[in-house]
Amino acid sequence: MTNELQSASRRAFLTSLTAGCATLLSPGLLAGDFQHIKRRLAAPLQAGQILTLAQMKALAAIADVIIPKTDTASASEVDVQGVIDDQLANAIDAAEAKHFIDVLDRFCLLTKADQGDAFENLSSAKQNTCMAALAKAKAPYKDLDSHFFTQLKSLVALSYYSSEEGGTRELVYDPIPGGYKGHFKLSENNNRAFSMFYF
C-alpha cells in the first residue's frame, strides 16, 4: 500500500473513530472545555502546563504519525499536543494523567534504546515502524500498558477534529449555517456531515 493510500485510509478511519471515541475516553476528559484553549500555532513548541518540552516534542511527533500532513494540516500543526497537555492538566483525573505521562516517558526511553535516537528525530519510516510495534504490543513495547495506544489515538483524533482545521476542512462543519435544512443529500456536501457536540 502506498503512503498516500495509507494516509487516506488512516484519515477515513480517524474520521469515523471521532464519532465514537467519547466512549473510550475518561469521564474527566468529557467534562473538558475545548472552547477556552488558546492555540499556540505561530509560537515555537514549548513546555506545556504539565508536559515538559521533551514530552511535547515526542507527543507532537507521535500525533503527526497518527494524523500526518496531507492537503490539510498535520496534528501538530493545529497544536494537538497543546490540547492534550491542557486535558492532562485540567480535565483528566490526576492519577490517570500521571499514568499516561509515565507510559509516554517509557515509550520514549524504549524507542531511544531500540532505535538509538529520540522518536521525533527518527525518519518517517522508522516512526511508522515504532507506532506499528506499539499498536501490536510487539518488542520493544510489549510490556507497555495496552490502553495507552488506544487512549493516545483517541486524544489525538478528538483534539484534531475539535480544531477549526479538523472541523471545517476535514469534517466540513459550517459554524454559521444558513436556515435549518433537516433533510439533505450527503452528496450535496461531499458525502460529509458533522454535528457539534458539547462537553
Give a structural overview.
With 199 residues, the chain is mostly helical. It is 52% helix and 0% strand. It has helices at 3-20, 27-30, 53-66, 80-90, 94-115, 124-135, 146-161, 164-170. The model is unreliable at 22-42 (pLDDT under 50).
Write the layout of secondary structure elements.
Elements: H1 3-20, H2 27-30, H3 53-66, H4 80-90, H5 94-115, H6 124-135, H7 146-161, H8 164-170
Question: Which labels suit this protein?
Answer:
mainly alpha, globular
Question: How would you briefly describe this protein structure?
Answer:
With 199 residues, this protein is mainly alpha-helical.
The gyration radius over C-alpha positions equals 17 Å
**Care to count the β-strands?**
0
Query: Which sheet architecture does the biggest sheet show?
Result: none
Structural class: mainly alpha
The H-and-E topology, N to C, reads as HHHHHHHH
Helix content estimate: 40-55%
Name the average pLDDT.
76
Which spans of ≥5 residues are poorly predicted at pLDDT below 50?
22-42
Structure annotation, total helices: 8
Number of domains: 1
Shape descriptor: globular
Strand content range: under 5%
**What is the CA-CA span between the terminal residues?**
38 Å
